[in-house]
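Can you make up a protein sequence with its backbone structure tokens?

===
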Amino acid sequence: VFLYLGSCLVQQKNYQAARQILEKATKIKSDSASAWNDLGTAILRYAQSLEMTSSSLPDTTAQVLKLAQEAELTFRRAIGREAQHALYHRNLGDALALQQRWEPADKAYLSALQRDSSQAATFNNRGVLLLRQYEYADASKMLLRAANILRHQYQNKTSATTRQALASAYYNLGVSYEGIKEKDKAVAAYKLF
């Protein structure tokens, strides 16, 4: 019950309440990889929301870093219980990227892709990571894969979430094409955005 309630609270973006509930879930079922992953997700999403709303405040930056480190440890616990789950590795990559630990984040994304190469979010997140490191050619490959997967999903079912993810992938793809001086491809990607 705690696991389900915590997941619902994460979806409602009530991250602090979700964290409290999911901490109870991990105490009751300490061997549950999904409980640890969901707890890490609540912590990470809260950190990301703080970063987006008040990134220039020094106290907030320190708090975001601390939360990202907590999320990292929590995702590592999930992986320790169920190492083959690609989502846990992607989430670990997201926590590491938020800490600007690029190399370990990249390794986590690659680990996720080895386990499941059908997840657009993993290709997108790795592509964004590569953009941050100015590796535009590699980023464009990742982001093109993300866009292709999302375009296929969008054709099969239209949802606001898929539309948003597809728009984001096209925007990021345009940025990567600009980085490798492919202006025509960049404009085409931006038009799809």
Q: What stands out?
A: The two ends are 40 Å apart (CA to CA). The chain has a mean pLDDT of 93. The CA atoms of residues 15 and 45 lie 7 Å apart. The chain has ten helices and no strands.
